[in-house]
Amino acid sequence: MTAVIETGGLGKRYRRLWALADCTLSVPAGHVVGLVGPNGAGKTTLLGLATGMLAPTAGTIEVLGGRPGAGPAQLARVGYLAQDAPVYAGLPVADHLKLGAHLNPGWDAELARARIKRLDLDPGQKAGALSGGQRAQLALTLAVAKRPELLILDEPVASLDPLARREFLQYLMESVGEQSLSVVLSSHLVADLERVCDYLIVLVGSRVQVAGPVEELLATHHLLSGPRRDPGSLPDGMRVISASHTDVQSTLLVRTSGPVLDPAWMVSGVGLEDLVLAYMSQAAGRGRRNHLEVQR
Amino acid sequence: MIEFHLDGRSGVAPYMQLIHQVRQALRLGLLRVGDQLPKVKDVAAGLAINPNTVLKAYRELEYEGLAAARPGIGTFVTGTLDGGSLAAHGPLRRDLQRWLAKARRAGLDEESIEALFVSTFRSAGEEEIA
How far is B72 from chain A, CA to nearest CA, in Å? Predict the structure, then answer.
């Protein structure tokens, strides 16, 4: 299966600041990919590079085997929904569909019409008068009716209330089930992604911390607790992601492909949220140390 | 047709929850051979979960011989789990209801009833093994 996004040493610099650095990824097709990280981690930059709206400073990126934004054929294959689901406030709903039909060669007018009807949106109403949830649904309808192979969504549910959030994800999952659609969506909340994503990329401090199928990530990360000991004494192939110690006990979150054989450890599984948080705090810890070194 | 639900705090993987619910419905006779399982697309849309999760659950049920996919139509029940005991459910349920009423009259609250049932169930199971 071909990769939907393939990058090698990809980087983007704004003046002296690297918004994304040394990013090497290969995301297979047919997944719903969650791109998680705190605000300012570089998520929007990576998505901007994938759509071709930004040009890389370093490295390479291919989307669906082509150069992002290279000509009408490539543009037609990728749908993009920017942060806060922008629509034209002064244009009625019906005109948004007309616009979609004129701008997109693969436009599915029937799908768009049926969807607007099911949402109970008045075609004559101006988009600016819609609720936040309705605006997001209109924007998603436009992106799906374009019939892309890859749909990229930047923080699609961040500004929505819980009900609108659920409805948005329901429609997104329905579309994934109906069409052979790969999806990449970013969020700073893991809880949003837990149900919908089967592939995860954790991005912190402009660098990819971990990436892979959710199932594999959950199967290879374990929480170990036992008598206090030096993490350096662990077997090869076991990587410590986070560690905390009391005077008698050590608790470690480790990544290992093999089983944990040492009977001194009590081994338990890790939820997606804990896993992401461990990588985030690991990266944040590194950031703090660097900061201190600069001050000295 | 059954309807799935998900418990986000149970810690059980969503695809396992779907499998449990089908097995439970088979045991209770809510699903019979020939019945159609909810369409993947509808489950994904209803629960806002990844369609691949639903597919995975259905594949597992196929592997267990409980369901079979008919391409382009859907997934259908092909096996049962009631072991032919479904006819006995009615009388057993009535016995249990009588017992529950007795326990309430004796002053047990719901938590105590559940604890008593679970501990008795466990010790009976252990005696059988021993």
Answer: 12
Q: Report the distance separating Cα A283 and Cα A188, nearest Å.
A: 15
Kindly report the CATH number that applies to the domain delimited by A3-205: 3.40.50.300
Task: Specify the domain boundaries for CATH 3.40.50.300 within chain A.
Answer: 3-205
Q: What is the ipTM of this complex?
A: 0.77
Residue in A closest to B11 by C-alpha? A271
Residue A292: pLDDT band with limits 50, 70, 90: very low
Distance CA(A144)–CA(A176), nearest Å, equals 9
Assign residue B122 a region (left: φ > 0; alpha: ψ between -120 and 50; beta: otherwise): alpha
Output phi, psi for A231, to 5 deg: -60, -20
Q: Supply the DSSP string of A75-102, one letter for each residue.
A: HHHEEEE-TT----TTSBHHHHHHHHHH
Residues from chain B contacting residue A193 (CB–CB below 8 Å) = none
Contact between residue B23 and residue B66 where contact means Cβ atoms under 8 Å apart? yes
Query: How much is the pTM?
Result: 0.82
